[in-house]
Amino acid sequence: MAITGRQRELLDQWFPGAAVARDHSWGLVGTTVLELTHEGARYIVKAADDKDHHLAREVHAHREWLAPWASLGRAPQLVHADEDAKLLVTRYLPGTLVEGSADESRQEVYFQAGELLARLHAQFAVEDAHFEAKANAKSLWWLNRPNRIAVEDAARLRAMIEAWPVPASVLVPTHGDWQPRNWLVHEGQVRVIDFGRSELRPAFTDFARLSVQQFRADPLLERSFLAGYGEDPRESRAWQRNLVREAIGTVSWAYQVGDTAFEEQGRRMIADVLVA
C-alpha cells in the first residue's frame, strides 16, 4: 500500500492499532483505497498521491452535497478528512458492487439509481455563462495530448468543437461517474460510492456513462432509470456536444492510464458521434 508518512501518521492518530482488512485500490491511478477495522467498526480510507486532483472534490461532496443520501444510509458517512494530506476516511458502506453482478441487468436497480440521482441534482441549480467554453477547451486539450485517435478523426472533432456555440448552462451537483461500478446493492437497496469526479455540471452529464453502456445494451434499463429520475434532461444539441466531449475524454484518459478496454469503448464512442 502506497501511503505517505503524513497519511500514515494521521491514520495512527485517528485509529490507533487499526488493522488493514483489504486493499480495494483500483491500480490505474495513484490513490490507495483501504478497508480498515478499528474497535469493531469498519472504515474506508482513500489516500491520494501528489498528482491527484480528485480527493478534494470528494471531500467537498461529502461535506456539502451528500446529506440527502448519507442520512438515509445510501452513501458513506464522512469520518475524517485532511485535504492537505490528501486523506479521506468514511464509514464502511455494506453492499455488493452492481457492476458484473446479476443486479446490473435488473430494472429495479436503475429505477432506484434514477431516484437517487434526482435527489442529488434537486438540491440547487446555478446558471453559468462559461461552462461550455471551458468544456470545449478541455476537449481540445485532450486532442492535443498523446492519444491513438486517427488523425483525420481528430481533425473532424477539432473543427466540430471550434464551430460550436457556447450558451449559458444550468449547473447542479453531479456525481460525475454515474454507473454500476459505483453502485452497491444491500438488502435490495441501491447505494452510492466514489465521489472523486463530483462537480457542478449540467444534470444530463450524469447520464453519459449509462447511455453508451447499459442503456445501449438494454433500452428497458433506460426507461426504468428515467421513471425513477422523473424526467429526461437531455436537450438534443447540448447532449450531443456532451457525447463528443465524453468520447474524446474517454479514449484519451484510457490511453494515458493504459486501460485498453476503456480505450476501446472510447473508440466506439468516437465512431458513434462522428456518424451522428
Task: Note the main attributes of this structure.
2 domains, 276 residues, Phosphorylase Kinase, domain 1, 11 strands, 5-stranded antiparallel sheet, 3-stranded antiparallel sheet, alpha+beta, Aminoglycoside 3'-phosphotransferase, Chain: A, domain 2
If you had to describe this structure to a student in words, what would you say it looks like?
With 276 residues, this protein is of the alpha+beta class. The protein folds into two domains: 5-93, Phosphorylase Kinase, domain 1 (2-Layer Sandwich), CATH 3.30.200.20; 97-275, Aminoglycoside phosphotransferase (APH), C-terminal lobe (Aminoglycoside 3'-phosphotransferase, Chain: A, domain 2, Alpha-Beta Complex), CATH 3.90.1200. The protein has helices at 5-14, 55-64, 67-70, 107-121, 131-144, 151-163, 208-212, 214-217, 219-229, 236-257, 260-275, and strands at 19-23, 31-38, 41-48, 78-82, 87-91, 96-97, 126-128, 169-174, 183-186, 189-192, 199-201. The strands form three sheets. The protein has a five-stranded antiparallel sheet, with helices on one face. It is globular and about 60 Å long. The model has no long low-confidence stretch (mean pLDDT 95). It holds the Pfam family APH. It comes from Amycolatopsis acidicola. GO terms for molecular function: transferase activity. This is Aminoglycoside phosphotransferase family protein.
